[in-house]
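Study this pair:
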Amino acid sequence: MRATEGDQLVQHGRVVGQHDKVGEIVEVLGPKGDPPYRVRFEDGHEGVCSPGPDTEIRHKATRQH
């Protein structure tokens, strides 16, 4: 999994009724776009994430507006 600043990190809900958690990658801490990432979520919370299998990266260059 590789990302750049400005990409979106989407953590999919694990149980029925749980919403996806979407955040913007504000800093890439690993080499060559690898995790961990500093992420700012929609609610303003910011944290360091090492994404698991329930996570996807939406690259800013390929997102449709």
About this structure: Residues 7-57 form one domain. The beta strands are 8-11, 21-28, 37-41, 46-49, 55-58.
